[in-house]
Amino acid sequence: MRIVALDLAASAAGLFAVQSLTDARAICPILEAREIDVAATAQLFAEFADWHTNASPLVGLLTDRAPYGDLCLDITGVEHLFGGEAKMLERLTQRLVEQGFSVQGAIASSIGAAWALAHFNPGTIVAHDPQTVLAPLTVAALRLDDAQIMGLTQMGLKQIGQLYSRSRQALTARFGSELLLRLDQALGSVNERLAPRLPPVEHYTERRFAEPIGLMDDVLMTARDLALQLTSRLEQGGLGAQTFHLFLYRTDHKVITLSVNAARATRDAHHIARLFIHRSERLGGEYDAGFGIDMIRLAASSLSPLEATQTGAFEARDGAEDLDRLYDRMTSRLGPQAVLRSRFVNSHIPERAVVFEPMVARTEDDPNAAPDPKLKRPLRLLPQPEPITVALAEVPDGPPPNMVWRRVTYRFVKASGPERIAAEWWTMPAKLQLTAQSAEAAQADMTGSFYGEGGLTRDYFIAEDDGGRRFWIFREGLFGFAEPKWFLHGFFS
Amino acid sequence: MRGLSKERALQSLRARIEDIEKHPALRDFAGPTAAGNLFAVPQGVLHEVFVDAGRESGAGFGFSLGLTRPLLGPRRPALLLLQLAHKAQDLGVPYPAGLLGLGIEPHQIVYGQMDSATDLLWAIEEAVGCPAVAAVIADTGAETQAFDFTASRRLSLRSAAGGSSVFLLRTGSGREASAARFRWRITPQPSVAPPFDARAPGLPSWKIELEKGRLGSRRDPREWLVDWTENGFAVVAPKRAMGASPAAAARTPLSGALSAALGDRLSQTG
Question: How far apart are CA B242 and CA A413, in angstroms?
């Protein structure tokens, strides 16, 4: 059992990270130790990182050395909001310290340099080339693994400044290319990109509150104001958006995200505000503002060009736009799986021939998949065919004289069929093998042939009972193979 | 003598007014001619369609689709079919391939699966407010708590304001107070076999009773025995002898209707 992380008081007592627990307890008897759940901690830290997007939109986790613990913000262009880099660093670290975290931070022009300074020389701000600032730091500041660090110290290379003068080929030959990569990343000669947690959005508006708010009504009112600002900005750019995200930043490092989708690109602030109202109704009891919300940001993504609409006297009112807005409103209140349209799939099997997809995420129709108009199909289909009990038919391949379904007996007076729908052999994994053994095996196999058709062929009948009710039933399996089973699949009118 | 002719003039005027009253939705039609449409219901009304049991709800559904087909047009292209999600296995899910057989294009239809009756009611109200929706068919089943009198009054007011019709499909024999303008009761009937196969089920056949509401004048019948053909509803003679040959089964055309306008009907060819 080794120590993985410790706080300032423990490190002041002389403990360090890879010490074994027994040694640590011996040095410091009043030590409090807890077993770490790495996955949960990483997840918590990721949510914590999302909260930091209220300082800068590009926030990433650096997981080189540990799955949690290192947070990197790209503050290009946002430091003026805080009154300068020094003030920004102080503000960010101070608010975390107030919440009880121990934090060290630094600002530099490259990720590697910032990491090095944050760990080994916290509080530094380097606006220019970090070469001189990095020189006195140990080689462990280059994010190398332990074996490499030990190798370097054995060779006597204890500080980064000593690496500058060595020849690059020699270093690569002895330590591999990773050392040079890390060095170049720290110095800024190689571009290292930050992988942001949330996708970057270019169009957003935000509002900070002097006093934290908590009521949903206030949040929605602010969302409406933000929508007005954002849509006027979109209009200047000639753009419309299909997805809108509302980020609510709580005072205690949590973010609540609400997203709405529109079926067509829009920049109508009224429509967007209404979609958020419906979306908030769907939140229901899950909305918890904690100690209050102190910043709200509205961002737009999935942008596309949208030309200016001009309401004219002679334009033909196309209902399509009204319908799309209706579907947007219904989807935002009821969820994306509530409003669906159908799409035909090129398949004979009835339950696979039609697929339902959400209205706001339409895909193209397949022109080959339109169903055959001569085939009679029921008005309603059961999602799962229900098993029924039938008496034996007069003819083995004929329709049954009656059925028992949901414990009620129906006597059939008319029936038509059978319509045979076989299994789709092209989706079967078994391949055709023309060997003597496989032919014998197929004959001996009672449940199906190469294509499994014995077990999966369906014979459909349209049957009408003495009350005039019409059903679509099928028999699964051919006589001669396994015992066939009867099912009810749909209803005609 | 003059009194008699005046009487006759008044009589013919009354008949004309009733004729006009019988087809009030003429101006909004884009489908088959109003004369050929047996149930010329006006737009923007609330209908309640009752069936006796859940297993017969297909008949109610088919009837509602038959009534909505003439309401679809270029200005009102959309039809919404709404249902409760947990009843999907009980009653079945609308099958677009089957709807195609009834003459309704699948790209006009939107399906909705709601979690609760309040969500269903909200969805109907939202949809009725949209001016491009022709009709909403909602399967409420046996839910009477959410769809009470106040809800039906609200729905009928909204549909009258917006112009889209609402059809509530309900099951059971209990009839509660409701503000619906029309209340129908549908019972499936044994069908007449097609001419080429004596043992096959034929066209869908229903007995339709209009329990509440008036379609035309007071003398019009309130019970019909109809078949659903490709071109609309066709009234059949109430007595259908079991032994009669299918071709001889009297299919009376609509009284006063222009049967030529209906085109050729499948049941009468061959």
Answer: 12
Q: How far apart are CA A52 and CA A75, in angstroms?
A: 11
pLDDT digits (tens, 9 = 90+) for A50-86: 888 888 888 888 887 776 778 888 888 888 888 888 8
Please indicate whether, in this complex, the C-beta atoms of A468 and B92 are within 8 angstroms of each other.
no
Q: What residues 47-66 of chain B have any CB closer than 8 A to a CB of chain A?
A: 55-59, 61-63, 65
Nearest to A342 among B63, B77, B106 (CB): B106
A410 shares a domain with A367 = no
Q: Does A4 touch chain B (CB under 8 A)?
A: no
Place of tokens 């969302």: A223
Q: How far apart are CA A136 and CA A311, in angstroms?
A: 68
A80 Cβ contact list (under 8 Å, min separation 6):
none
For A277-316, letters b (16+ CB in 10 Å) and e give: bbbbeeeeeeeebeeebbbbbbbbbebeebeeeeeeeeee
**Domain boundaries defined on chain B:** 42-188, 191-270
β-pairing verdict for B133-141 and B165-171: parallel
Residues of chain A contacting residue B226, judged by C-beta atoms under 8 Å apart: none
Which residues constitute the domain of residue A412? 380-491
**Residue A276 belongs to domain with CATH number:** 3.30.1490.100
Rounded to whole angstroms, the Cα distance separating A488 from A74 reads 61
- DSSP 8-state assignment for residue B181: S
Fold of B42-188: Rossmann fold (3.40.50)
* pLDDT greater than 60 at residue A170: yes
Q: Is the ipTM of this complex over 0.90?
A: no
Nearest to A330 among B63, B123, B191 (CB): B123
Nearest to B100 among A365, A373, A382 (CB): A373
Rounded mean pLDDT, A257-275: 87
Residue written as token pair 């013919």: B12
Q: For residue B202, what pLDDT is reported?
A: 82
Interface residue B216 vs chain A (CB under 8 A): no
Q: Which residue of A has its CA nearest to B204?
A: A493
Report d(CA A226, CA A251) in Å as an integer.
20
Which pLDDT score is estimated for A296? Answer: 92
Mean pLDDT value across residues B190-217: 83
Closest-CA distance, B26 to chain A, in angstroms, reads: 21
Interacting residues of A205 by C-beta distance below 8 A, sequence separation 6+: A226, A229, A230, A233, A297, A298
Find the closest chain A residue to B198 by CA distance. A414
**Residue among B26, B62, B55 at smallest CA distance from B167:** B62
The top-scoring range by mean pLDDT among A444-448, B82-86, B96-100, B165-169 is B165-169
User: pLDDT band at residue A219, thresholds of 50, 70 and 90?
Assistant: very high
Q: Which A residues, 309 through 368, put their C-beta within 8 Å of a C-beta on chain B?
A: 317, 319-320, 322-323, 325-327, 329-330, 333-334, 337-342, 344, 350, 353-354, 356, 359, 365
**Shortest CA distance from B205: residue in chain A:** A468
- Is B148:A429 a contact under the CB 8 Å cutoff? no
Query: Do A59 and A72 form a contact (C-beta atoms < 8 A)?
Result: yes
pLDDT at position A189 is 86
Do A21 and A115 have their domain in common? no
pLDDT band of B33, cuts 50, 70, 90: very low
First to last CA, chain B: 53
